[in-house]
User: Which sequence fits this backbone?
């Protein structure tokens, strides 16, 4: 929502005249005249404060007003027909929820590069990317997240839990039985649909 306000002072009449306060949502206009000297300055101050708030709140602090949006790459790690699920640490946001491991995409970084970096940092493993799944955006109360999932396999190293509380290797049909972070449920659906299509081709 936004407003424009035009204001001028009429010395002859000794009054402040405010015209054309326009509501951009409705197109409505109104004309306000303040004759009293005290009211004139009070009204002028109110208009200035409103203009200040309108600029800084809606423009400078827009990110805080609407919530942060983060972009995360995550790895669906396959091994011997099983899929890895990782449990978030107790001190993290969405503590002890299950997720596909990964992290925020750095500026200039591709999804594949991010997954390799994050899994090396979080679990000490190298991975080979097999396929990309559709991205998905989920809106939490305080922020939004877009997940970019990729299917991968371990190419080097042994898993070390540097950030997660636990891991489980599950058959694809058992994935939905865990207490996942809400954003990960559509990713599970994408993955199961991919496997179903592959079975139909065989």
Assistant:
């Amino acid at each position: 929502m936004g407003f424009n306000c035009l204001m001028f002072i009429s010395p002859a009449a000794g009054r402040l005249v405010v015209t054309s306060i326009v509501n951009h949502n409705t197109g409505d206009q109104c004309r306000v005249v303040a004759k009293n000297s005290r009211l004139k300055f009070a009204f002028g101050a109110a208009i200035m404060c409103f203009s200040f708030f309108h600029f800084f709140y809606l423009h400078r602090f827009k990110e805080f007003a609407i919530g942060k949006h983060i972009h995360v790459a995550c790895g669906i790690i396959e091994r011997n027909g099983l899929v890895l699920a990782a449990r978030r640490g107790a001190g993290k946001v969405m503590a002890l929820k299950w997720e596909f491991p990964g992290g925020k995409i750095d500026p200039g970084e591709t999804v594949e590069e991010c997954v390799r970096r994050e899994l090396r940092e979080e679990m000490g493993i190298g991975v080979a990317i097999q396929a990309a799944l559709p991205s998905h955006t989920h809106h939490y109360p305080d922020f939004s997240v877009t997940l970019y999932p990729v299917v991968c396999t371990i190419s080097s190293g042994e898993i070390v839990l540097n950030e997660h509380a636990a891991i489980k290797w599950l058959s694809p049909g058992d994935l939905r039985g865990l207490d996942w972070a809400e954003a990960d449920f559509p990713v599970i659906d994408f993955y199961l649909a991919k496997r179903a299509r592959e079975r139909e081709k065989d």
Observations:
- Residues 3-64 form one domain.
